[in-house]
Amino acid sequence: QSALTQPASVSGSPGQSITISCTGTSSDVGSYNLVSWYQQHPGKAPKLMIYEGIKRPSGVSNRFSGSKSGNTASLTISGLQAEDEADYYCCSYAGSSTSVFGGGTKLTVL
Amino acid sequence: QVQLQESGPGLVKPSQTLSLTCTISGGSISSGTYYWSWIRQPAGKGLEWIGRIYTSGTTNYNPSLKSRVTISLDTSKNQFSLKLSSVTAADTAVYYCAADGYNYWFDPWGQGTLVTVSS
Asked: Which residues are registered as beta bridge partners of A19?
């Protein structure tokens, strides 16, 4: 069970859109629509932003959206705002009732 | 919504057993609404799923930690616990407990507790 692969960092200007990728294998991301995404600000606990690949919890802005193609899931943030600057982590079901996280991506709002 | 709070020693000696407890408020641990997970994060690094426990008491663990991890439930105290044996400095991390949705998402999370492994 290897960690999912995310870019170490992405950046964008306010108002722009960015996409964070999360690449796994046919044993995890590719086999299940069970990817979740988390936002973590420094010193804080992670916050669920997307679950089951595309669903948004109540209270999460519709600027956040999720998708998947093959073994790669993606998180897109549109209309980038300063408050979106944070670390983002993907997580996937990996079979046998186990979960695996990505290495995390630091989003910088320029 | 349920709230979770981790507790336990902040310092553990190498080779000893790390023990943490997660106390749930605002709901019953045995309601069947959630499973319950432990997740950790070394300083400056990413998240690592440790394991989960179901209301039946059935557990599933990260294969890389399976030989050292035990997660248990105490329904009378509305708590679940983590034990990690034979710890080394590599186990130094912030440890989070989280409510585990039926489709393997985590929400909400506890605030996290730092455990340092050092003599």
From this structure: A76
Q: Given CB atoms, is A106 within the 8 Å cutoff of chain B?
A: no
Question: Which residues 6+ apart lie within 8 Å of A38 measured at CB?
Answer: A46, A47, A48, A49, A88, A89, A90, A91, B47, B106
Cβ atoms of residues A54 and A67 within 8 Å:
yes
Please tell me the distance from the alpha carbon of residue B48 to that of residue B93, in angstroms, as a whole number.
Answer: 10
CB A3 within 8 A of CB A68: no
Residues of B in contact with A1 (CB under 8 A): 62-64
Phi-psi label, residue B10: left if phi above 0, alpha if psi -120 to 50, beta otherwise: alpha
Nearest-CA distance from A34 to chain B in Å? 6
- A86 at B interface, C-beta within 8 A: no
Tokens 């730092």 found at:
B114
Instruction: Return the DSSP state at A102.
Output: B
Which tens digits make up the pLDDT trace of B36-69?
999 999 999 999 999 999 999 999 999 999 999 9
**A53: how many CB neighbours lie within 10 A of its CB?**
19
Q: Measure B93 CA to nearest chain A CA, in Å.
A: 13
Of A45, A92, A102, the CB nearest to B111: A45
Q: Indicate yes or no: CB of B96 within 8 angstroms of CB of A45.
A: yes
pLDDT in tens, A54-95: 999 999 999 999 999 999 999 999 999 999 999 999 999 999
